[in-house]
Design brief:
- The complex is a heterodimer.
- By secondary structure, chain A is mainly α.
- Chain A has one domain.
- In chain A, 67% of the residues lie in helices and 0% in strands.
- By secondary structure, chain B is α/β, with parallel strands linked by helices.
- In chain B, the strands form seven sheets. Chain B has a seven-stranded mixed sheet with strand order 5-4-17-16-15-6-7, with helices on both faces. In chain B, strands 23-25-24-27-22-26 form a six-stranded mixed sheet.
- Chain B has three domains: 273 residues, 3-Layer(aba) Sandwich (Rossmann fold), CATH 3.40.50; 195 residues, Dimethylsulfoxide Reductase, domain 2; 134 residues, Barwin-like endoglucanases (Beta Barrel).
- In chain B, strand 10, helix 9 and strand 11 form a beta-alpha-beta unit.
- The chains are: A mainly alpha, B alpha/beta.
- Chains A and B meet through helix 1, helix 2, helix 3 and helix 4 of A and helix 1, strand 3, helix 8 and strand 20 of B.
């Protein structure tokens, strides 16, 4: 087996494991699912100082008041 | 409402990683945002039967997949100008005179009139323009009805945005790949510029990959934000992407940087390709692209040696006269460098076998060969028509399990310009009924004047819409559409990936708004063929689609928000590729049989008229809008109050343009009004026109169309042969000659949202 083939197979195993973890993490029901979510969460979280997705518009959004939306929809 | 001032940054960061507890009286639904076509998995919070907030998902694999268009959705969809009831035209077409009718009354009349048109002109006289991406719950049912009735004339915005890419990718390796951002080591962005609030997940993946050490190469005439953080930025001449890729191939082949084993075992046509590539020495490519040959070589080496690399889908090469060649060259680069279907490369995933896919629902096999042959445009520009994709039926069955794979809905389409010419009376046969759903056709394709003429020439025009768009203003019926907050959705990525995601219904649709599923079900009944759509409800239909899993829709939603198929990788080792030869076709046998050059090529710009000394490109989305939508949302309009033409400081000086000055941009087809914005990031001689501008607050109806006749970029988009891709018939909108006309500023009357009393 060539070095490239070995490398590819290793990468494929690793990618399959990642897909498995993502699937279990998404289900998030059993204890093992929740462990998977914990692992995925840790693997994907970034340090606050490096978090390029920080955005005041999104992070500070508190949504709407339902009555305000009702009035708006009625054109009041 | 978004808060006016940021909170303490540390508090915000801390809050993001805590379990988000629901507020009193609030329930939570896991949904898929439909504010644009990215389909981010998000959460909607519901109170008193209303969605009051949209936030990012708690599932870490969807972390932060949300943008400004998503969080504003509860208000945007509560807009008082939303269409709430079916409306029937009572005056002249475009007069703006409507009467409210019931859905049943509407479909009784629509069915009768459509049957009359079909009886007189044949089923091919009925055309549809839509996209499942926009409507959500179409799920191929529109095509299913058309196939049973006998019409092949379905078109879509995906004809020049991803759908055509999918169809053209099949010519090389039989499927449409998705880049493996999570494992890649080098990303190439061809003119694409994902940002925090536009193509958000892609932006996240690219930034994450860069943080891991992956390289980023950007080819873009503009110094975009992606270009600014790239390892290599090639500021190529607009529309010269295919020439650039020839340069890369020249370096990769000459320096033997390609995967020789893969090329030897799994490709055909390498020697012919090499000969074609030899026609593009770097000096020539440098002249065609305007880039330094050394930098071109450096980028090519980086792509070939830093890999596995990916060239993610880009809309830029979907919209050029060399689109087919450019997309093929991307495919060829992926293949010869050994990046196809390997981790970190370009994955060929196939359909998810657990769910009945939309291609199967469409039932293309019931449309007769005789009717398929009538598909407009399939003689001149067949690449993504039935005729062009015919050669993949057998191989696709062998490799992917079914004959028809309508990837991204783009593999059995009618080229839009061919359709609109026929609708306008200049085709091989009449087209007299036109339906559009979640689509604003007069502004979504090239040559708006032709499309208006085409619609005005119809006997029956039906729109299914949330708002009174310029196109809907010309309809006979405007039927109120639901939104992504108001219905469930089973999202299967249209074959691009094998993941399946779920979206829960968060609230009841307002007024009489109904889903696209209900629209098609009513139409099947009105055409006396209710058996074509036999499911009573959307949930029943989803139960049917999930039968292989042994789960109902309700159970499936409770189980997960994303269902994966285990990745296979290098499936071709067992099955070959879904091409006529079973191999990667560097020289395409299918294109050759269709009478086209089987190898990629580059068509240079036609001679330009000195009257039009500048070049424009369009098709660009602004962060607050999706395509022609969202213009009614006050918060988004505050961010983008007017259409802005981006121009370089040098060009502004040359043409004596001032910041914020209103000008006209004119070419052979039309002129539009637009404001000047001087940007350092723009190259001299090139101007950027934003896509899809109209103003809902302006006068409606024919002759006005809510400002579309004043601002819409589609008026400047040409569809003559010099400006169409030969194989696909899609327009070239990345480099169209134009000029800027100065206009007296005192004649410019700007009507603001507030002045018009709209949505106040």
């Amino acid at each position: 087996m060539s070095a490239r083939e070995r490398w590819l197979r290793k990468q494929e195993r690793s990618a399959r494991l990642a897909a498995f973890l993502a699937a279990r993490s998404s289900r998030n029901k059993s204890l093992s699912d929740k462990i998977c979510r914990y692992l995925v969460n840790r693997a994907t979280a970034v340090k606050p100082e490096d978090d390029f997705m920080r955005d005041p518009l999104i992070d500070n959004d508190m949504g709407f008041d339902p009555d305000e939306l009702d009035r708006f929809q009625r054109g009041e | 409402m978004p808060a006016a001032n940021p909170l303490d940054p540390q508090q915000v960061v801390d809050a993001k990683y805590e379990e988000r507890k629901l507020r009193p009286g609030v329930t939570m639904k896991r949904t898929i945002c439909g504010s644009c076509d990215i389909a981010c998995s998000v959460v909607s919070e519901v109170k008193n039967g209303r969605v009051v907030r949209v936030r990012s998902s708690d599932n870490p694999i969807f972390r932060d997949n949300i943008c400004m268009k998503g969080i504003i959705a509860p208000k945007g969809l509560a807009n008082p100008n939303r269409i709430m009831h079916p409306m029937k035209r009572v005056g002249e077409r475009g007069s703006g005179k409507w009467e409210q009718v019931s859905w049943e009354e509407a479909f009784a009349d629509i069915g009768t009139r459509l049957k009359t048109i079909i009886a007189e002109h044949g089923p091919e006289a009925w055309a549809v323009s839509t996209s499942q991406w926009n409507t959500g719950t179409d799920h191929g049912l529109g095509r299913r009805i058309m196939n049973h009735i006998g019409s092949p004339n379905w078109t879509s915005g995906v004809a020049l945005c991803a759908g055509n890419t999918a169809a053209i990718n099949r010519f090389t390796y039989g499927w449409f790949p998705i880049g493996d951002f999570q494992n890649t080591k080098c990303i190439v962005l061809m003119g694409h510029n994902p940002r925090r609030h536009s193509w958000t997940p892609m932006y996240t993946w690219i930034k994450q990959a860069q943080a891991r050490g992956a390289k980023l190469i950007v080819t873009d005439p503009r110094r975009s934000s992606s270009a600014e953080r790239a390892d290599i930025w090639l500021p190529l001449k607009v529309g010269s992407d295919a020439a650039m890729m020839f340069g890369w191939l020249k370096v990769i082949i000459d320096e033997e940087l390609y995967d020789k084993d893969f090329v030897k075992q799994w490709t055909i046509g390498f020697d012919e390709l090499k000969k074609r590539v030899d026609e593009y020495p770097l000096e020539r490519v440098g002249k065609l692209t305007g880039c330094d040959p050394e930098m071109i070589a450096k980028a090519a080496r980086m792509y070939a040696t830093e890999g596995p690399s990916i060239i993610p889908w880009t809309p830029i090469t979907d919209m050029q006269r060399n689109s087919t060649s450019a997309i093929r060259l991307q495919s060829i680069l992926r293949a010869i460098c050994g990046y196809v279907d390997v981790p970190g490369g370009e994955l060929l995933q196939g359909f998810n076998p657990d769910v009945v896919n939309e291609s199967a629902i469409e039932m293309h096999h019931v449309l007769s060969d005789e009717q398929k042959a009538k598909q407009l445009g399939s003689d001149e520009h067949p690449a993504f028509t039935y005729r062009g994709q015919e050669r993949f039926r057998g191989p696709t069955k062998k490799v992917w399990g079914q004959e028809y794979a309508n990837l991204i809905m783009g593999c059995h389409m009618t080229p839009p310009s061919s359709l609109f010419r026929a609708m306008a009376g200049d085709g091989p046969y009449p087209v007299k009924a036109f339906f559009f759903l979640g689509n604003n056709p007069i502004m979504s394709y090239a040559n708006m004047k032709l499309i208006i003429k085409a619609i005005m020439n119809q006997d029956l025009v039906v729109a299914h819409e949330q708002f009174m768009t310029p196109s809907a203003q010309l309809a006979d019926y405007v039927l109120p559409a639901d939104s992504w907050l108001e219905r469930p959705w089973l999202m299967d990525s249209f074959g691009w990936t094998s993941t399946v995601r779920t979206s829960e219904k968060s609230m009841e649709p307002p007024g009489e708004c109904r889903s696209t599923f209900e629209f098609w079900k009513l139409l099947a009944g009105a055409l006396d063929q209710p058996e074509i759509v036999p499911w009573e409800t959307l949930e029943d239909f989803y139960d049917y689609r999930l039968e292989n899993l042994g789960m109902s829709w309700e159970e499936f939603v409770a189980e997960t928000d994303v269902h994966f198929k285990a990745p296979e990788f290098r499936k071709y080792l067992k099955t070959g590729f879904a091409t006529p030869s079973g191999k990667v076709e560097l020289k395409s046998s299918a294109l050759e049989e269709l009478g086209f050059d089987p190898l990629p090529y580059f068509r240079e710009d036609p001679p330009t008229d000195p009257e039009y000394p500048l070049m424009l490109f369009t098709g660009v989305r602004e962060d607050g809008f999706f395509q022609t939508g969202h213009r009614h949302i006050e918060e988004m309009r505050e961010r983008h109050p007017e259409p802005l033409m981006f121009v370089s400081p040098g060009t502004a000086r040359e043409f004596k343009l001032d910041e914020d000055e209103w000008v006209e941009v004119e070419n052979e087809l039309a002129k539009i009004s637009i404001k000047v914005a001087i940007k350092d990031a723009m190259p001299d001689g090139l101007i950027r026109i934003p896509h899809g501008w109209w103003k809902p607050e302006m006068e409606q109806g024919a002759g006005h169309l809510s400002g579309a006749l004043k601002y819409a970029d589609a008026q400047l988009c040409r569809d003559d042969e010099d400006y169409l891709d030969r194989e696909q018939g899609i327009p070239h909108i990345k480099g169209v000659p134009c000029r800027i006309n100065k206009v007296p500023q005192d004649r410019v009357k700007v009507v603001t949202v507030a002045e018009a009393g709209y949505a106040e």
